[in-house]
Amino acid sequence: MVTAVSSTSTTSASAASSASSVLASDFDTFLQLLTTQLKNQDPTDPMDANQFTEQLVQFSQVEQQINMNKNLETMIAMLQSQQSSANLSYIGKVVDFDSNEVELAEGGTAFWSYDLPEDAQTVQYKILDEDGNVVRSGSMSAEDAGAGTSGRIEVAWDGTDADGNACEPGTYTLEVTAKDASGQVVDGTNVYARGYVEAVESIDGEQYLIVSGMKVLPEDVIAVFAMTDTDESDA
Asked: Same domain for 84 and 135?
């Protein structure tokens, strides 16, 4: 399902048009007052032309600023429209995004991915529930993890604990530690959540991708690919 994406261009255009209308009304009033003053001025002590000339210049400057604002609002509306189209293109894709938390549905499977440093020899992982309890853990060689010596590894968790019991639906976190041949921790093991983009929703003026039931900001997406492009490492 694709949720309709709201637009803010109407509000922006209304604000610019309102300002323009107010300025036009004020300018008409100014001209009427100026005309009345000119008609009724004392011939022996005429008005200083510099005063109303300066006022005309000020009106002109305000009008130019309003026109600039209109152009900026139009550009912003165009950019928002382009962003909306770009976000809709995510639907039906698999994405990695900047989080190590995923939502486990009842009877479902949860997915993560992580970067494996080149000099990693062993990999240790822990899956934790919302209370920080470890529900599944293990270790393996870097080669058994699924990418030889390096690369992006996918973790597919069937939602069961160490005893094979189904875990409750909810939010789960993956922690991964890579170690070299000497047993030292290797930096660079970044964990990402992975999911299928189901829809795009606009919430309080902010657009979100709905990824496997989670709300994800488009700017948090770090990779987009087809499911067949990934390697799997079962947890």
From this structure: no
Together in a domain, 106 and 197: yes
Number of independent structural domains in the chain: 2
pTM above the 0.90 mark?
Answer: no
Hey, what are 201's tokens?
Answer: 């929703």
Asked which of 25, 58, 88 is the last residue of a domain, the reply is 88
Place of tokens 């991915």: 113
Kindly report the CATH number assigned to the domain that includes residue 203.
Answer: 2.60.40.4070
Same domain, residue pair 80 and 132 = no
Q: Which residue range forms the structural domain that includes residue 155?
A: 94-234
Tens of pLDDT along 127-163? 999 999 999 999 988 888 775 544 678 899 999 999 9
Please give the Cα distance from 192 to 197 (Å, whole number).
Answer: 15
Q: Which residues contact 9 (CB under 8 A, 6 or more apart)?
A: 73, 76, 77, 80, 81
